[in-house]
Amino acid sequence: MRVARPNTADSTGALVLLAVDIWFNAAVQSPTPPMAWSAAFLAGSTLPLGWRRLAPVPVLGIVGTVVVAGTVAGVAISEAGVLVALYTVGSWRPRSMAVRCLVGFGLAKVAAELVAGFVPSWIPVLLILYCTAVVLGDQQRANRELAAQEQQARARLAAAAERSRIARELHDVVAHTVSVMVLYASVARRAVTSDPGRADAALAQVEASGRESLAELRRLLGALRTEPADLAPHASLDNLDDLVARCVAADLPVRLSVAGNRRPLPAGVELCAYRIVQEALTNAAKHAKPTKVTVDLDYRDAELRIDVRNDGPGRGGGDPGHGLIGMRERAALVGGAIDIRHDPGEFRVTATLPYQG
Fold first, then answer.
1. Cα gap 331→324, rounded to integer Å
2. In whole angstroms, how far apart are CA 219 and each of 213, 224, 327, 339?
């Protein structure tokens, strides 16, 4: 079985603490047992700290056992290692477990002090130090959990705001489609007796526009059912050439290629595709500083595949940006999927958007 490697910072800290303990023990305390014997106890109470964040409770068990044994044996030991171990248990384990570990070690240590015949007045000081270490660790754990909750809340708020923005844009798209339907219906009404052919063509347009409007309304209601911004409502893939030209003019080296039979898509899909490309290029300009950016559109039988790549570092881990969250929301809204990858030397956004939903 492969043993987990200790954290570099923890290992370095354990070695530094061991060196300080050995120096202090030799220079100040002048232990009665041979120095090699004392150094062995000091090593046992400090070196396991290299694994303290990987296995906080077992590390406390090892360090605590060595400290208790050293106390009973009358070997000059250091309390620093056990304080660090107690702090780590408080920081990385539930409060109830940390309290149990504190009580168990505290009782063992008090018993060892009494057996060794040390001054009882020293025991309350030790217990206060142990409790302080656990309390500080518990506070650190609480702060870390609060920060994670705040990050999740920011992500949820960003997703909700993006859904609201998408809903507004789709509302404008549907309103435009309904206006067109009204115009064609008016034409059909006037021509129904004088020019039946023209009236029939107008009614066909009303039917087609109505179907498209219904599809967009379904997506709109889907966005609103799960829970403000001022972008142009009619952005579409026809505007991509202008978008790329503006990027090139701003010294962002973008190359656009289109595969398959380019065709009109539902307004919601057009809008979603345009915004995904736009945000991917914005991300490249703001975070990547690339030397090459490619935008590939592939019109397939039932879906549009978008692939945007750049050779810059892109946005790393941690808190995701609102733009990346928005990409996922937009793709999900039209029944599509998106994959955002940050590999060495490449940042890539791949989206698949179905034509029918």
1. 11
2. 10, 9, 16, 21
DSSP string, 301-343: SSEEEEEEEESS----SSSPPHHHHHHHHHHHHTT-EEEEEEE
- pLDDT at residue number 133: 93
Domains recognised in the chain with CATH numbers: 8-118 (no CATH), 156-226 (1.20.5), 237-354 (3.30.565.10)
Task: Give the SS3 label for residue 260.
Answer: strand
End-to-end alpha carbon distance in the chain: 49
- This prediction has a pTM of 0.49
| DSSP string computed for 70-131 | HHHHT----SHHHHHHHHHHHHHS-HHHHHHHHHHHHHHHHHHHHHHT--TTHHHHHHHHHH
Q: Are residues 45 and 67 in contact, defined by beta-carbon separation less than 8 angstroms?
A: yes
Q: How many residues does the chain have?
A: 357
Instruction: Tokens 């063509």: give the residue.
Output: 201
Low-confidence ranges of the chain (pLDDT < 70): 1-6, 26-36, 119, 166-180, 183, 209, 212-235, 250, 287-289, 312-323, 356-357
Q: Which residues pair with 180 in a beta bridge?
A: none
In this structure, are residues 78 and 43 in contact, taking their beta carbons and an 8 Å threshold? no
Q: Where are the alpha helices (DSSP H) in the chain?
A: 8-24, 35-44, 56-73, 80-92, 95-116, 122-191, 196-226, 240-249, 267-283, 322-333
Q: Which of 232, 302, 315 is nearest to 274 (CA)?
A: 232
Say what the pLDDT of residue 318 is: 41
pLDDT of residue 232: 39
pLDDT of residue 185: 77
What does DSSP assign to residue 7?
Answer: P
